[in-house]
Amino acid sequence: ITIFQLNSTFKFSFDDLYGTPTDYYYKIVHCTKDWKMSNIRVTEYLKGMNDLRISNYEPSFNTLQNFVHYELTLPNRDTNLICSGNYLIEIYNQENEKILERKFVLYEDIVNVAMEMKKTRNLDVTAAKQNAYLSVNFGETNLINPKKNVGLVLLQNGQWYNAITNIQPQYILGSEFKYQYDEETSFWGGNEYLHFDNSNIRNVNNYVEKSFLGDLYQTYLRLRTPSVNNFYTYYFDVNGSFKPRNQMREIADVEADYAWVYFEYRLPKLPADQKLFVVGMFNDYQLLNQFEMIYDDQSDNYKGAILLKQGYTDYKYVIAKNDGTILDELNPEGNFYETNNEYHALIYYKSDSDRYDRVIGLGKADSKLITN
Q: Do residues 342 and 239 make contact, with C-beta atoms less than 8 angstroms apart?
C-alpha cells in the first residue's frame, strides 16, 4: 500500500528493460483529494529540489533479460516533502517524456480513526459484501466547520479504482463523526487473490504447469477454472502484492530474471462491451492492452501473456466495460463476505482558508475480523 506517514522514509523503484544505464528524472506533484493538480507552488509542499536525476541505479547480474534497476528514496538530502496529501511521482527520460507515474499519500497522525468491518444488512447481498463502520474523533483538534471541510476516502487493498468518496457522517456526537451506513460504505468482497511463485524458475508447482527456456524463460500457469459451486474457500494471499525473488540468488532487485508468464482462464465469452484483464499491484491495476486477456475460439478459454519479474505474484481477473469501469459485481471468481481484504480510511481536511487538501488521519481494518 502506498500510504506513508509524513516525514517517514519510503522507496520507489523500477526496471528499465533496455538494459543500458540512462538518465531518468523524477518530479513530485501535489494533488487534490480527487487527484487533480493542486494550486500550491512547489516550494510550499517541497523543501529542496524537484526535477532531479535518479542517481541510484544498478545493472542486472547474471540474467537473460538485461535491465537496469533504478531506486529512489524519499525524503532524501535533495527532496523533502513538508505537506500531507495526495502525490504523484512522475519519471521522465532525457527527452523530457513522461514514462510512468505512481500515486502515493502522505498523512498526518492528528485525529483518531477507529474502523471495523461488518456484514452488510442488505439481505440481497449480505453473503457478498463487506461494510465499513468508522468513528473519527477530533479530540482537542480545532477544525473549522468540520462537517463541511472534512472528507472521507475508503480504500480496499490499496485500489483507487473502486474507492468510496464523498460520504457524509451519519451521526455527529460532539467532536466525533460516526459512519454506520448499511450501503454507502460497503464493498464487494471479491475472492482471495490468485497467485503463482516462479522464484525457482525451472520448477513446476501447484500453479505452474510447465517452464522452459527460450530466448527468455517461459512460465505457463495451469488453466484456471472458477468454482461452479460458487462457495468461498480460504487460501493465503498478500492482498494483491508481489515480491521479486530468485531462490538461487540473494539480491532479487538485480538478480531476479524476467519471464513470459502465460495465463489461461476458462470463462464464457463476454459481451462485446466487456473485456477481461489480469491486474494486481504488479501493474498498478492498469487496464492496458498488454494486460487484456483474449478469447480463444478453439479452446473456449481466455489467454494472455505478460512479461513479469521472477518471484511471488498475486493477481486477479477483472471484468471491465469498454470505458474502463471495472465491474466488481461481476467478479468471475465470485464475491464473498468471508474474503480477507485490507481496508484503509483516509481523512481529508481543507478549510475555506486552506490552499490544499491535508490528510489528517488514517484508519485501518482487516475483514478477517468481520462481524455481524
A: yes
**What value, to the nearest 5°, has the Cα angle with vertex 286 and ends 103 and 258?**
100
For the segment 71-93, what is each residue's pLDDT rounded down to a tens digit?
999 999 999 999 999 999 999 99
DSSP 185: T
Three cell numbers, residue 27: 518530479
Peptide bond into 75 cis (omega under 30): yes
Supply 67's cell numbers: 535491465
**Amino acid letter, residue 236:** F
The pLDDT tens digits of the residues spanning 234-279 come to 888 889 999 999 999 999 999 999 999 999 999 999 999 999 999 9
Residue 351 and residue 145 in contact, taking contact as beta carbons nearer than 8 Å: yes
Which of these, 369, 358, 368, 347, lies nearest to 134 by C-alpha position? 347
Q: Which helix (H) or strand (E) segment is 288 a member of? A: none
pTM score, whole prediction: 0.94
- As a whole number of angstroms, the distance between CA 23 and CA 94 comes to 6
